[in-house]
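Our consortium's second objective concerns turning raw sequence data into structural hypotheses that experimental partners can test. To show how far this objective has progressed, the report includes one record in full. It was chosen at random from the queue rather than selected for favorable results. The single chain below, 434 residues long, was entered without modification.
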Amino acid sequence: MRIAMIGSGYVGLVSGACLADFGHNVICVDKDAGRIDMLLRGEIPIFEPGLDDLVATNVRQKRLSFTMDLAQAVAGADAVFIAVGTPSRRGDGHADLSYVYGAAAEIAKALTGYCVIVTKSTVPVGTGDEVERIIAQARPDIEFAVVSNPEFLREGAAIADFKRPDRIVVGAETERARDVMSEIYRPLYLNQSPLVFTGRRTSELTKYAANAFLATKITFINEMADLCEKVGANVQDVARGIGLDNRIGGKFLHAGPGYGGSCFPKDTLALVRTAQEAGAPVQIVETVERVNKTRKKNMAQRVIAACEGSVKGKKIALLGLAFKPNTDDMRDAPSIDIVETLSAAGARIHAFDPEAMSQARAIMPDIAYEDEPYACAEGADALVIVTEWDAFRALDLKRVKEIMKAPVVVDLRNIYRPADMRKHGFTYSSIGRP
């Protein structure tokens, strides 16, 4: 099938490359000339494991191409995916839908025949109705359908998630639109991936509900970690004990510094605003959003406490800046709050991340960046593990202790065993463990 992907950011590029790998002819569109130029040169503007090879293969096979010309991409397409950003709107927390509606207006001008317009972006309930209105008003002469098909991609594992999904949710109002979507995802039938057809509004809400539930699990185990510290219990054992219950499951029960990234912070806030406007407040999600925001700010206090109550003039080494490993995404990363608080308390911050350094520099230009972990740790009064990259899991602890000014380690991801750290002579603190 011929597919146009409007937006070549994280979701659009991953989705477009995977659909091309299924055998479809995909044209990715973006208004960012720099981004398109990079892609045309074979450079990938984001870090996602395996994406560079996937893009290169499908470009070489002439199934995947890139352009700034939306009209050319949309003309004759069987389906047009909208995969533009929906950031939180300043001031009220609602999702900013200006890019979605702008794309819809441009798509309407370019349609040449029946087409399914697929909203891949995360959008509040009722957005598809407005997209349909925009297109119908501009092009009453064209037959089309608007479908909701939310993405459920984990950064760092997006290709596997797209090709071997737990489910594919499609909100479609007509049989013809469902047939088109079934054909697009037909290659996944071999994997027996469930294709869940719903109404359009149900599909839109399903995405927000999924992210809010996962954010709730993370926040719950983080609060259990705080309780464990007070009563002498071990949060990792608690998580295993409850996670083995099939009704709960073990995923997203890893205590840490709070969630960040491109989805959970903005989606929980957008769901809260949508629910308030609908007169059905989601009080659990409201609490999750508030507790997580506070938690990220409080993580720096753990570092200050480990440094005997003051970090003024002290060198603090941060390992990991991205909100999670295997991505360079710095959006709402806990490291931002930690750096801000420690810097305000007078600390000298030195940081290292395997992939997120360039993104971090744009956000936090006033801290020092090192080329590798040991340079970061040298002469440090405390070392803080913020992101659980594999590269940090097997550090030479003897060397680390020798080069640090003070052997203080604050492990916000619990990647080391307390007994091992004590054996190597560290003053060690972690999350939710005695």
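The partners drew two points from this record. The two ends are 57 Å apart (CA to CA). The longest strand covers residues 2-6. Both points have been shared with the crystallography group to help prioritize constructs.
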